[in-house]
Amino acid sequence: MSHILFFLYILLLAGGTAGVASLAILHYRLRHRLSGLFLFVNTCLVGALFLSLVSYYLKSLIVYPADLRGLFGGISYLLGILVYGGTAVALLPLPGTQRAGLIGFTGLVILAMGIQFGFLVTESVRAMEVMRLPLMGVISGYLAYLGWTMIRVRVVPASETLDWLVTALGWVTLVFALGSAGYYLAARFLPVLAGLEISLDYIVALAWSGVSVAAFLRYLRLPQAVWAEEEISPAFIKQYGITARELDVIRQVSRGLSNKQIAQELGVSFTTIRTHLYNIFQKTGVQSRVELLRCISGYRE
Q1: Domain named HTH luxR-type: which ranges (predicted)?
Q2: Number of domains in the chain
Q3: Does 97 lie in the same domain as 33?
Q4: Whole domain around residue 72: which residue ranges?
């Protein structure tokens, strides 16, 4: 049984690593604050999973030094703070976020995790068992709130991939929160569930990674997935009389940047970018960014 769980940990770690790699490529392409923060959060989740793998290996297959329990617990607590804190920081500036509620709930869940860590360090097994259900209830409630917040918020219109990513992560988190609440309630009365040596946190980490991989694959299928400047055909440029500056704008659009981000990238005003886009739309006869990028894709060899 121990070897099966160890193998399961390895599978979870592999899935988490795939999610981190997908987010890293997306962030490189989009260069958006949100993609960077979610990359950071996913990396922390995978780090916590790796720590649990090492801990489980030492405890079950070799020897688990007692003095490492507090160290591993402390690192896990720190990673948990980074995960929840990083997610909150990512969502705070977005339209639709209830900032006061998110900040307050994040502080509460960090406190709950701190209480758990205190029980671990002091080896208060009885207190840990008594408080397990209330503390898990707080964490499940927070995850439900986090999921609902991610579903409600909206990212800048130009970042369609990020908007999809945040919404999908929200649904996954909300469903997991409801399922975990039921699990912890059932574990209160079914010892066989309480005896499982794998945390549900890592199931949601795998789910987040799956969504991240799906977002990356979805990005590849969108017209804006132009991977190199050379892929914008000279025939397209000649056909529509695209100027050098308009070509620069198109390349930034292909990365999924908003008008404001393009202006910052090219060192010009927001109004200038809007004017360039208007001229590009007039020349090509398209009505939107997506239509423009589909038009470009038709000229690829």
Answers
A1: 235-300
A2: 2
A3: yes
A4: 2-221
